[in-house]
Amino acid sequence: LLFPVSNLCGKCRPRDTDLLQPSLNFLYWSLHQTTPCSQQRAVAVLLSNVSLLELLQKVLECTWLWSPPCRPAYLSSEDALLCSGWLLVASLLLYQHRYNTEVHQTLSVDLTEVLNAVIFRNKKPILLLVSIMQFLRAVLQQNFSSSLLVIVGQNTAAGGTQLQPSSLQDTALHPLAMQQVSSLVVSLQNLLVHKDLLLSQAVVACLETLVEYLYVKNQDVALHVASQPWHRFLLFTLLSGGQKSFLQPEVLRLMTLFVRYQSRNIISQKEISQIVHEAAEANIAELPEATSYALHLFLSQV
Fold first, then answer.
1. 36 preceded by cis ω (within 30°)?
2. Phi/psi zone of residue 72: left (φ > 0), alpha (ψ -120 to 50 degrees), beta?
3. Residue 78: which of 87, 93, 65, 92 has the closest Cα?
4. Number of domains, the chain
5. How far apart are CA 118 and CA 124, in angstroms?
6. Contact 219/261 with Cβ under 8 angstroms?
7. Is 27 among the domain residues?
8. Structural domain includes residue 166
9. Would you say residue 208 lies in a domain?
10. Can you tell me which residues the record assigns to a coiled coil (predicted)?
11. Residue 68 has pLDDT above 60, yes or no
12. What is the pLDDT of residues 97-108, one digit of tens each?
């Protein structure tokens, strides 16, 4: 089915949302819900379809064109298509790198537009924001070096000002700049305060990947980002309200991040002991899967 569905997508226009959106979803799930052997073949089929990749290029570009001043409260068909497009491209980036699949057509993405989508949000639906962050995670994990992707807009900061490449930090973090990193971290912190489960999971995962990328590029910058005092206030905010337990997936993963990069001003021995105490009193078998996984990562890191 991948052949006819991918060929059908290649014959569509981005405005054919009723046909494209379920088709792209089918391609996405075909990549994720199959055996490793079949997955490698599926990636090869999709990446060999030039017309499909050209269509995906147009869909991604529509993210910056379809930006009405007042978006509806619900997810429109156009936004749903954009979500499917970004998620599929993120998956193709991941699996192309894993299997070193031959690329017949590259995709071009403006890094400044991607960062601005997260930094400024502009009332984008949460699901679209999550999809773009999934893409950003994929390119960060691959050090912006995917053979499938061409990054443009590397010399423009968030807000449209030109960056001066004279900074040693900017040179080390290329194609990111320190100004972009700072703006992105602040935006991710602010998005966590919304306490939306899907958004929180995506934000924490993006923050984890960003700090890992920074640590490889410049350890001082990574440790500076991980030890920002605002993180501690963020933890108190996440723990406020009805659910005060440390055994929340996003809280545990943030704590794991701070332990990994030794941010002693953010997480103290007292918090670590409290988490261990709560874990000891909890019925581990009844914890949600996401919580169990996050707790495992935390204890392993400790």
1. no
2. beta
3. 65
4. 1
5. 9
6. no
7. yes
8. no
9. no
10. none
11. no
12. 999 999 999 999
The pair of structure tokens assigned to 136 is: 């950003």
Highest mean pLDDT among 67-76, 151-160, 188-197: 188-197
SS3 content of the chain, % helix, strand, coil (to 5): 65, 5, 30
The angle formed by the CA atoms of residues 167, 171 and 172, to the nearest 5 degrees, is: 115
Question: In one letter, which amino acid is 285?
Answer: A
> Is 160 in contact with 115 (CB distance < 8 Å)?
no
The 10 Å Cβ neighbour count of residue 146 is 20
DSSP state of 164: P
Are 246 and 201 spatial neighbours (Cβ–Cβ below 8 Å)?
no
Distances 187 to 118, 193, 251, 301 between C-alpha atoms, Å: 7, 10, 17, 26
> Do the beta carbons of residue 176 and residue 225 sit within 8 Å?
no
Pick the closest to residue 78 from 131, 132, 128, 112 (CA basis): 128
Please tell me what DSSP assigns to residue 242: S
Number of H helices, E strands in the chain: 15, 2
Domain presence at residue 26: yes
Category of 287 on φ-ψ map: left (φ > 0), alpha (ψ -120 to 50) or beta: beta
Residue 255 to residues 112, 162, 171, Cα–Cα distance (Å): 30, 35, 30
Strands (E), the chain: 107-110, 149-152
- As beta bridge partners, residue 110 has 152
- Cα–Cα distance measured from residue 173 to residue 144, given in angstroms and rounded to the nearest whole number: 11
pLDDT at site 158: 41
* Digit-coded pLDDT (tens) for 79-119: 999 999 999 999 999 999 999 999 999 999 999 999 999 99
Which range marks the domain in which residue 93 is found?
Answer: 1-67+74-105+125-131
* Separation of CA 290 from chain center: 17
Within 8 A by CB and 6+ apart from 276, the residues are 299, 302
